[in-house]
Specification:
The protein has about 60 residues and is an alpha+beta fold. It is built from one helix and two strands, in the order E-E-H. It has a two-stranded antiparallel sheet with strand order 1-2. The longest helix has 15 residues, at about 40-55.
Length: about 60
């Protein structure tokens, strides 16, 4: 299997976040980009995730 290295980037922009994950002798580098014209903040997005999880969670049966 040949190693293919990315020589040309899709964009000239620098990544907004870069994370390195080490797994044994391998280092995975993940670059993240945020949309340029977005109005939602990270807190807004996290609130949507929490609301979706709360809605999808099974409701316990209360007996008194």
């Amino acid at each position: 299997m040949q190693d293919k290295k990315q020589t040309a980037s899709r964009t000239d922009r620098r990544p907004d976040c870069v994370t390195e994950i080490r797994m044994g002798n391998t280092v995975l580098v993940v670059s993240g980009f945020f949309k340029k014209d977005t109005t939602a903040t990270a807190a807004d997005k996290m609130m949507k995730v929490l609301e979706a999880e709360t809605t999808a969670a099974p409701k316990p049966n209360y007996t008194a």
